[in-house]
Design brief:
Blueprint lengths: L2 H26 L7 H27 L7 H27 L8 H22 L1
């Protein structure tokens, strides 16, 4: 297994674990402590966190076939940044109530979009 595949498989798996853990935290602890609106915000972060953790795992699997692809390397890195900015800002916003944190969320969303476009380039270029 190459280094890039291993890195993204580990990173994606850790993030999948975190997404499941944070979902359970929301369901069992935050449910009685947050307003329904803020719980929904937190859960949106959990959903996108989980989807993109699987995306990073997918990138790790694809990197087994195309280990030298710079597009794959960037796709995985930017997807991780997207998780931090998008989901992280929603977690922080919902728990703290500091609304200004919401301005970070769209930057994370753009990172998600960019990472998926880079994945398309990686596969198209390798074919």
């Amino acid at each position: 297994m190459n280094t890039i595949s291993k890195l993204f498989l580990i990173t994606g798996s850790i993030n999948a674990f975190l997404a499941v853990s944070l979902g359970a935290f929301a369901a069992h602890y935050l449910k009685s402590r947050l307003t329904p609106d803020m719980l929904s915000v937190f859960n949106t972060g959990v959903h996108y966190h989980g989807y993109h953790a699987l995306g990073i795992i997918l990138i790790g699997i694809i990197a087994l076939w195309f280990p030298g692809s710079i597009y794959l390397k960037w796709a995985g890195a930017i997807m991780l940044v997207g998780i931090i900015l998008f989901s992280g800002s929603l977690y922080a916003l919902s728990i703290s109530g500091i609304r200004v944190l919401g301005v970070i969320t769209p930057v994370g969303g753009l990172a998600f979009l960019a990472s998926w476009v880079l994945l398309v380039f990686a596969v198209a270029k390798a074919a």
